[in-house]
Amino acid sequence: MRFGRAGDSQFTTRATNQLMIILGVDPGTLVTGYGVVEIRNGKALVLDFDVVKNRGSASMPIRLHKIYSALCSVIEQYHPDEFAIETAFYGKNAQSALKIGHARGVSILAAINSEIPTAEYSPREVKKAVVGNGAASKEQVQAMVKTLLGIRHSPKLFDVTDALAVALCHFQRRGKPRPNSVRKKSNGKAQNNAWKEFIKSHPERVIVRQ
């Protein structure tokens, strides 16, 4: 799904008002989510998001090639300044972790081949940055992402909002405007205030671990 078309008052041309574009990725061999976020004047605006879906019957090399090719196309279209991806979660299922590692590898390769700086964040770190709680549920992450980016309808898959959350995490933790930008740099106060205000207004969405 793409956003930021001409005529939308919320967006202006990237050539005259662009600060930074971040590509966030939630890797998986069956479903890889991605989200493209533009940072302008300290505010995050969504440009595009979608998933790369693979058939379960497809061989691993075919799946990885599709993920790589799809992300290369996204990079070619939006020319992101930064790339952020979620690290693998090493749980009890080592085979699943290994497969995620494959998807992470080709995703990072797509960014590196285009000489895009990359950053990695753990699932807990992403949740902490976006929701304020490292143990937040996917539903809570989705609700916050929708609020921060003004997305009206919930995507069908959590992989999409997880990917956008990774991009937002990168913005909060490490995002900086382009060095050659003529715009003033933002300290991200507006974004942080939005997160705090949302948490204050919706305490039921925050899980507090004792």
Model description:
The chain has 210 residues and is an alpha/beta fold. It has one domain (14-205): Ribonuclease H-like superfamily/Ribonuclease H (Nucleotidyltransferase, domain 5). The protein contains 7 helices and 5 strands. A hairpin with a 4-residue loop joins strand 1 and strand 2 (31-40). The longest helix is centred in the middle third of the chain and has 20 residues, at 94-113. Residues 3-16 and 175-188 have low confidence and may be disordered.
Summarize the structure.
By secondary structure, the protein is an alpha/beta fold. It has helices at 14-17, 60-78, 94-113, 123-130, 138-149, 158-173, 189-201; strands at residues 20-26, 31-40, 43-53, 82-86, 118-121. Helix content is 44%, strand content 18%.
The CATH level-2 architecture is identified as 2-Layer Sandwich
- Spans of at least 5 consecutive residues with low confidence: 3-16, 175-188
Instruction: For the record, give the distance between the C-alpha atoms at the N and C termini, rounded to a whole number.
Output: 39 Å
Roughly what fraction of the amino acids lie in strands?
15-25%
Count of extended strands: 5
* Helical/strand content category: alpha/beta
In CATH, the homologous superfamily goes by the name Ribonuclease H-like superfamily/Ribonuclease H
SSE sequence, one letter per element: HEEEHEHEHHHH
Largest sheet: 5 strands, mixed
Shape: globular
Report the C-alpha radius of gyration, rounded.
17 Å
